[in-house]
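Agenda item 2: adenosine-5'-triphosphate complex prediction
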Amino acid sequence: MPHLTWTGFWVLGDKHSLFRDGTEAVPYRFKSCPTVTPLPHPASRTPRSLRSIMRERLSVPFFSLLQETGELAERRRVSVYAVGGFVRDLLLGIPNVDLDLVVEGHGIRFAKDLARQYKARVTPHERFGTATVTFPDGHTFDIATARSESYDAPAALPRVRRGSIKEDLCRRDFTINTLAIRLNAPRFGELVDHHGGRRDLKDKTIRVLHGLSFVDDPTRVFRAIRFEQRLGFHLHRDTAVLLTETAKMGLVRSLSPSRLSGELLHVLSEREPGKTLARLADFNLLHFIHAQLKWSAGLARLLDTVKQAITWHAGLSLGRLASPWVVYAMALLDVLPHPAVQETLARLTFPRRHTQSLLWVSQESARLLQTLDRTAKPSEMFRALCNLPDETLVFLMAKARSTQGKQNISDQITTYRRVGSILNGNDLKAMGLKPGPLYNRILDRLLDARVDGTVETEANERRLVRRMVK
Ligand code: ATP
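Presented output:
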């Protein structure tokens, strides 16, 4: 039985020599699908039907849609499988309707057939052999052609060709993500488990498929930790060794800024990013975000307070915060000096408007928080906060120390932002005022007066306008 040993050296351009599988060097990328610790597992020998679990855990329409997809596959003489996170979460009892389908055959053609049957919209991505089908109710299926990757030489680009489901599953990150469910009518619900994914789900284990998995794709380092923390699993011993060594070798540094940003965004979008970030710190992975970024009790507390502030905001029923991850990003960067925040954000490829909020918070929030601690006219606080996005306000809520500061932010979110003057530009025109910069001054003044409660009716507003232009 091959057993992984770590040779502990790394020669750039000679990835072959990185690991040993028994006594032989693992032929990097040439081996069809090497396994780190290949254990026999009953699921791979005796196909198991998940039909009853699917019926029990999926809604009736969704279950029927999967069945009908399998019937269509049978008619079109292709094999179709549900794969990845959907299957993993189904078995764990976690609701997840993000469905990825893999087709042994022509994925895009099947997607078009499916879309036709349901009057759905199909968006093909010819280059990748994938397509997204959007059903009339807004639900989407991602459909891919099963593929295999082979390499002519080390470090060469992979040659991608159509493959079997087995080959497709070989390309994946962790055993728990290699599970597939056959949808074709006669064997609907049959579990495909070539890598012991079911066993690892039961044992709560995150395990890579082969010794070079993290080298092949260092984003898996972040993914491993994310799944570990999200699901309350543990890293398999070999996987933990590989991850530690990958982190030590600095392979994460080879990720492009956009891939690193994507991974960080996924981490910050977890339900409890604090746990995932703490674990990244255990593996010394935070410094890939910025050399000065360190885990601390203070950061842990701030992330926790941010979580409470987000929960508070959600409880206000004002609509969901569009990007909670940005609030966690503000907390993460809060421990860095401003120049380091600038460097970090210059490298990461976060959406522009969020980058601007993050920069603003890093530079201005301390000063603003001092202002908010004061008791002042509501309009003064309104003016200080009125142009800030919700994410920034929620972060300020988490940072505010004084009751007064918290009250001011809360008033802004719950009340003042909803206030508007009764009169508008047309009314000012009807009152005989000449359009120009004066309009803005008047409308701002009316708004301030409403926030302060000094005008209540339209007549009050008209009187105030007349006083202003006298
Ligand atoms: P999530 O719940 O976070 O969306 P997911 O497993 O659905 O988890 P996706 O990022 O949507 O994650 O990926 C879908 C599937 O594609 C995964 O289950 C996995 O099989 C495969 N996959 C994704 N990223 C990688 C990767 N970097 N390397 C190998 N396989 C990957």
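Discussion summary: Residues 84-85, 100, 172-173, 177, 217, 219-220, 223 surround adenosine-5'-triphosphate (CB under 6 Å).
Owner for follow-up: CH.
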